[in-house]
Amino acid sequence: MASKEELMKKLEEKIRNCKKCPLWQLRTNPVPGDGSYDAKVMFVGEAPGYWEDQQGLPFVGKAGKVLDELLKGIGLNRREVYITNIVKCRPPNNRDPTEEEIKACAPYLDAQIDIIRPRIIVTLGRFSMGYILRKYGFQVEPISKIHGKVFEARTLFGKVYIVPMYHPAVALYRPQLRKELEEDFRKLKDLIEKVV
């Protein structure tokens, strides 16, 4: 049986060579994801931005700095978690990912979840929230209503807890929401202590 590392390396190779939607024509680097393949907590953002596209790593721009601060605030670092996006290539001008792009790319995210088997999936932003909640059979409501709530899903590999959160970029353009993000991360810390 292949190890998690072998499975992930193979999957990352597939992502690097992907041409399932037009975004591949514009990318500098696809961004498969980064972190521990044994992570108990997985963060799923929306799509790479400029710096992510340059470096081939998720959350390395300004929003990534906010994410690092939030992680540090609850005693976690990037090496312990796994961070990825629902769409692996940068949409032009950082626009929102389209339904087609999400549909083309989602099987990669599904495979990452199956390989890593996290106990907790934290969705960052409304696109990853919508996809993950639907995938596990939940009703999707506005993120302003359900951020920080814990959804419990059953999977073939056991229970998984889903925690929708605002995208860390929100702290940059709506600073008043940073407090809510920090509060949601405190709830995440409590959940980690309970289930991991």
Would you identify the regions where 5 or more consecutive residues have pLDDT less than 50?
none
CATH class, anyone? Alpha Beta
CATH fold title: Uracil-DNA Glycosylase, subunit E
Q: Which oligomeric form is depicted?
A: single chain
- Give the helix level as a range of percent: 40-55%
Count of structural domains = 1
Query: What class, by secondary structure content?
Result: alpha/beta
Q: Indicate the mean pLDDT.
A: 96
% residues in beta strands = 5-15%
Number of strands: 6
Q: What's the Cα radius of gyration?
A: 16 Å
Described by the principal axes of the CA atoms, the overall outline is: globular
Structure write-up:
Helix content is about 45%, strand content about 15%. The protein has about 200 residues and is an alpha/beta fold. It has one domain (about 5-195): Uracil-DNA Glycosylase, subunit E. The chain is globular and about 40 Å long. The protein starts with a helix and ends with a helix. The relative contact order is 0.16.
